[in-house]
């Protein structure tokens, strides 16, 4: 299995457009991304399954991890590599029971260190902090302090993801502070050249 590190590209159906999600994901995979998350808050269950199954085939071809945002059942039905859970989703304990010990479970910890400790105690495989910078995807998200990454790196022994308005220009500070992964959505998928955008991030890692 690939390591949880480097560029973590989130294929968000609402942000990218349902009709472009497969083709755009293929572009970023071809550019070297090794971790993809499928996030879909807008389509029907049938449509989400169709997209997720197509992404599973693609990510298998490129030997890339595929995680599903929120939907544990969908992740299980397409044999995804795991799920990413937020505060309003299934609990980590429930997800672990459904998916088993070998699947990846990531947890959004937002801007609170205590959330990370709770997630790790519940068997999360990685934690995500953010938003570090203003984000068009989640404009109202609380701002996370960069010190969270350093504190988490010192205390925990699992991968740490940073998210929220991260560009190639401001990513280095987060990587230096302790982030193992940089999560991006529009900065890659909506770039004029997704391939070039991916390469700019990968040069930093």
Main sheet makeup:
8 strands, parallel, barrel
Radius of gyration: 16 Å
Provide the structure class.
alpha/beta
Approximate strand percentage: 15-25%
Helix content range: 40-55%
Q: SSE order, as H and E?
A: EHHEHEHEHEHEHEHEHH
Shape: globular
pLDDT averaged residue by residue: 95
Task: Catalogue the unreliable spans.
Answer: none
In the sheet with the most strands, the strands line up as 1-2-3-4-5-6-7-8
- Give the quaternary arrangement of the chains: single chain
The rounded distance between the terminal residues' Cα atoms is 19 Å
Tally of helical runs: 10
The number of E-state strands comes to 8
How is this structure best described in words?
This protein is an alpha/beta fold. Helix content is 40%, strand content 20%. The protein is built from ten helices and eight strands. The chain has an eight-stranded parallel beta barrel, surrounded by seven helices. Helix 2 (21-30) packs parallel to helix 3. The radius of gyration is 16 Å and the shape is globular. The mean pLDDT is 95.
